[in-house]
Write a structure and sequence with these properties.
Elements (H helix, E strand, L loop, with lengths): L1 H5 L17 H10 L4 E6 L4 H12 L3 E7 L1 H10 L8 E4 L3 H13 L5 E4 L4 H8 L13 E7 L7 E4 L9 H17 L6 E5 L10 H14 L7 E6 L1 H5 L1 H6 L12 E3 L3 H14 L3 E7 L5 E2 L7 H26 L1
Parallel strand pairs: 1-2, 1-4, 2-3, 4-11, 6-9, 7-8, 7-9
Antiparallel strand pairs: 5-6, 5-10, 10-11
Helix pairs in contact: 2-12, 3-12, 5-6
C-alpha cells in the first residue's frame, strides 16, 4: 500500500528478507553475518559493557576483535563478568591515552579495518584519530552518523552530524552529507532521500541554515554531492510526515519520506537524536566516517541491539570499501 501512495520502491532497510528477523537492526546484523569478519581494533575495553560488546559481535561472527588496553585488567574483567575473550587478541597498553594512540597506530599499520571505542572518553580517541601527522584523516571531513531504528517510522533514519562537528560551515556540511550518502549506498540500502533540516521550509536570510540547505541542494544538482536525492530546507515534520508535507504544499520524493536527516549543527542533532531515543524509544547506533577506516562509537547506555547494529553497519561499510579498493587495484 505504501508503495502505491508514495511512489518509491522499498530499500533493503524496508524490505524484510525471507526468513530474516523483522526489525531493521536485525536485518543489518543478518547482512553483516553473511560477510567476511572484519578485523576490529577495540581501544581500551575496560568495563563490562565495552568488553562484552565486541565479544558479542565476535560471537555473532561479524568481527575479529583485537583488544588494546591493560592486559591484566582486561583479563580480570573477563573473569569477573564471565566474558569469554579467547577469540580475541590482546595488545597491552597501560592507559586510555596509550590505548588510543596504539589503536590508531595499528590501523595505520593495516592491522585492522575498523576502529571501535571502548570505555575511554570519545575525545581521547578522536584526538588521536584527528592528529595531523599520526592520525587517520583523509581529504574528507570526519563526521558522525546516528543510524536509528525508530519504532514508529517505516524506515531506518540516519541523523548527521550530532556528535563531532559543532557549527559546520557549508564546505563541512557538504562532506557531512556525502559521508552519510556513501554509508547508505555502500551498505546496500539503495539511493537515499536526504532532507536538509531547518526550522522552516522556506529560504530566508534571517535563518542561515535555510540558505545552506538551498546551496547543498544546488551542489547536488551540479554533482558536487552525488549518490542521493536532496531536498531542503525542510522542517522536521514535513521531512518525515507525508501529511505535513502535503499541508505545506511540498511535493518531492524526499518530503515526508526522508531517510537521512542533515541537521544544522551539533546542538540540534544531539537534541533530535536524544528526543527520538527517550520519547520514541528508538535505538541509536553510531559510526564515524571520513577517516581511513569506519569508527564505531558506543556508549554505556546503548542497548545490546544498538551496539551490535553499530558493529554491523561498520562491517558492511568496511566490506564495501574493501571491495571497492580491490576493484581499483585490478
Amino acid at each position: 500500500m505504501r508503495e502505491q501512495e508514495t511512489g518509491h520502491q522499498p530499500t533493503l532497510s524496508e524490505r524484510p528478507a525471507r526468513g530474516a528477523p523483522e526489525t531493521k537492526y536485525d536485518r543489518l546484523i543478518n547482512r553483516a553475518q553473511q560477510l567476511a569478519r572484519v578485523k576490529t581494533i577495540v581501544a581500551y575495553p575496560c568495563d563490562e559493557t565495552s568488553l562484552r560488546g565486541p565479544m558479542q559481535a565476535a560471537e555473532l561472527g561479524i568481527i575479529e576483535p583485537i583488544l588494546v588496553g591493560p592486559s591484566d585488567k582486561i583479563d580480570a574483567l573477563s573473569r569477573e563478568h564471565k566474558i569469554d575473550i579467547s577469540a580475541a587478541k590482546v595488545a597491552d597498553a597501560a592507559t586510555p591515552e596509550a590505548a588510543a594512540k596504539k589503536a590508531v597506530e595499528m590501523v595505520r599499520q593495516s592491522e585492522g579495518e575498523m576502529l571501535m571505542k571502548g570505555s575511554l572518553h570519545t575525545d581521547e580517541l578522536m584526538r588521536e584519530v584527528t592528529a595531523s601527522v599520526t592520525g587517520l584523516r583523509t581529504s574528507r571531513r570526519i563526521s558522525h552518523v546516528f543510524v536509528m531504528d525508530v519504532p514508529s517510522y517505516h524506515d531506518i533514519l540516519f541523523v548527521t552530524d550530532a556528535a563531532i562537528n559543532i557549527s559546520p560551515d557549508l564546505d563541512a556540511k557538504r562532506d557531512i552529507v556525502q559521508n552519510a550518502i556513501d554509508l547508505f549506498t555502500q551498505s546496500g540500502m539503495g539511493t537515499p532521500r536526504v532532507a536538509i533540516l531547518s526550522a522552516v521550509e522556506t529560504i530566508t536570510s534571517k535563518i542561515p541554515s535555510t540558505i545552506d540547505a538551498a546551496a547543498l541542494c544546488k551542489m547536488a544538482d551540479r554533482r558536487q554531492i552525488t549518490g542521493g536525492v536532496l531536498d531542503g530546507p525542510l522542517a522536521f515534520d514535513n521531512a518525515i510526515d507525508p501529511a505535513a508535507a502535503k499541508i505545506k504544499g511540498i511535493s518531492s520524493s524526499v518530503a515526508g519520506h526522508a531517510q537521512i536527516l542533515v541537521v544544522p549543527d551539533l546542538e540540534a542533532g544531539n537534541m533530535l537524536a536524544k528526543n527520538l531515543v527517550y520519547l520514541s524509544k528508538a535505538d541509536a547506533a553510531g559510526i564515524v566516517l571520513g577517516a581511513r577506516v569506519p569508527i564505531v562509537l558506543t556508549s554505556r547506555s546503548d542497548s545490546v541491539r544498538a551496539r551490535m547494529a553499530s558493529c554491523a553497519v561498520g562491517v558492511i561499510y568496511a566490506d564495501a570499501r574493501r571491495r571497492k579498493q580491490a576493484v581499483a587495484e585490478v
